[in-house]
Amino acid sequence: MGWLELSFTILTFASLARARRICPFGTQEHVTNYSERQCCIAVFCDPGFESRLCENIGDEALCVPCPEGKYMSTSHWSRDMRLCQIKRACDDGQSVFDERGTTEDRVCQCDLDKGFYNKSVGDPCIRKRCEAGMELTSDGRCKPCRSGYFKPEANYEPCLKKKDCDHKYASHGNATHDVVCKEKASCQLLSEK
Ligand SMILES: *[C@@H]1O[C@H](CO)[C@@H](O)[C@H](O)[C@H]1NC(C)=O
Ligand SMILES: *[C@@H]1O[C@H](CO)[C@@H](O)[C@H](O)[C@H]1NC(C)=O
Ligand SMILES: *[C@@H]1O[C@H](CO)[C@@H](O)[C@H](O)[C@H]1NC(C)=O
Fold this sequence. Notes:
The structure is a single chain. The protein is of the alpha+beta class. Among the domains are: 27-86, Tumor Necrosis Factor Receptor, subunit A, domain 2, CATH 2.10.50; 129-189, Ribbon (Tumor Necrosis Factor Receptor, subunit A, domain 2), CATH 2.10.50.10. 12% of the residues lie in helices and 27% in strands. It has two helices and 18 strands. Strands 1-2 form a two-stranded antiparallel ribbon. A two-stranded antiparallel sheet has the order 3-7. A hairpin with an 8-residue loop joins strand 11 (116-117) and strand 12 (126-127). The chain starts with a helix and ends with a helix. The site of one 2-acetamido-2-deoxy-beta-D-glucopyranose has 5 residues, from loops. One 2-acetamido-2-deoxy-beta-D-glucopyranose binds at residues 171, 174, 176-177.
């Protein structure tokens, strides 16, 4: 036997061995990464789903929704046996801006309420303290508390909402001091009875 003939024989043998796995008509071989094999009727999985072997009625493969914290952005045939991917973890100083369901990865943002901002996309989050009566903006400036809000000391936090005195104010406060409510006069309480 010549070298060419020999290698041809080996190749034929190898493909015959693989052909022993031929699936019944109408089904296709589904192979998991753990080398589990099954002949299933292939199904088309939408984004947000991952594929399982033939666990459905009548040997049909199955599409199951991504588990909590995972996503699948594309549609695919069940024989690709694709699994949903783990969503990114938001870094320190970041919070979830948009969870985006099971079809897209989550979007993180610098956590303004904890004093973090960023200069441009992909930049790390920077922490900045603002003086009493001021709070951080998303572009990294310190701006005075809005009307109805105050902040008594310098820190990384946003301004706080002022108390509601139901129209009975002793003092309306300012950017650093909360309002002071008027105490209900006791004679007023008596006359109400
Ligand atoms: C197998 O691995 C590939 C590549 O790492 C991955 O895309 C696929 O989702 C995995 N599928 C299974 C069933 O583990
Ligand atoms: C960084 O800033 C840009 C705007 O300049 C914003 O679109 C992006 O989402 C920010 N990234 C984070 C992680 O906050
Ligand atoms: C805010 O109000 C407090 C208490 O009434 C006062 O001591 C303080 O000077 C005021 N600050 C400003 C900037 O007006």
